[in-house]
Amino acid sequence: MTFLQRTFTSLVHAHAGRTQGKSASTRRFAPRVDKGHNAASRWPLPLFAALYEKVTMKKLIVFALSLFAGFGVHASELTNEASMNFDLENVVQFLTDLDDQFKFGLDVKALGNFSSAVPVEAEKSIVVNIVDSGRKSKMEFRVFMDDIDAPDLYMFFDSSNLSESVSKFMMGWAEERGM
User: What is the spatial distance between Cα 29 and Cα 39, in angstroms, rounded to a whole number?
Assistant: First the structure.
């Protein structure tokens, strides 16, 4: 945490150094309080706008890290993976069986349509709400279309136990079908 605080402080001081001595400039780097406008829209950087909007420190840190890590904030907590390659024709049946086994409450049809809409050599993801043992949770559903009609499905969860269970289910499901 100290490293992040020092880095953030350095960014603030560096920005302040660049803006000092420019009093003749028409740009404003602090919010105006007059005229009822959205002051955050006049700030030069989204980071400072986020500070103005009183975002919690945790959200601010996740946002700052996402700039360097290359992933969105929504995926930051879903780190436990279960994945496998499928034939596109088996995706809906697999998701139906997965939902029957774990009672996630998945919209199987929507996820099937999402999977089939990904172009070859492209990757797309969506975060969906699930129910895990009676508690509300999230699952990132990622599809990489490796080849024509051959998607790699990735599911990311916040629970390592759940991802291991889903991985075992995937393996058993494939073995039952001779894949």
Answer: 10
Q: CA angle, 56 as apex, 52 and 60 as ends, to 5°?
A: 80
Using one digit for the tens of pLDDT, what is the confidence trace for 48-94?
555 555 555 556 555 555 554 444 434 557 889 999 999 999 999 99
pTM: 0.58
How open is the CA angle 159-126-100, to the nearest 5 degrees? Answer: 60
CA distances from residue 44 to 16, 18, 50, 143 in whole angstroms, order as listed: 12, 12, 11, 35
d(CA 81, CA 141): 10
> Is residue 9 pLDDT above 70, yes or no?
no
| Structural domains of the chain sorted by starting position, each given as residue range(s) with its CATH number in brackets | 2-70 (no CATH), 80-176 (3.30.450)
For residue 175, what are the CA distances in angstroms to 80, 112, 172, 179?
23, 21, 5, 6
Give the other-Cβ count within 10 Å of 80's Cβ. 17
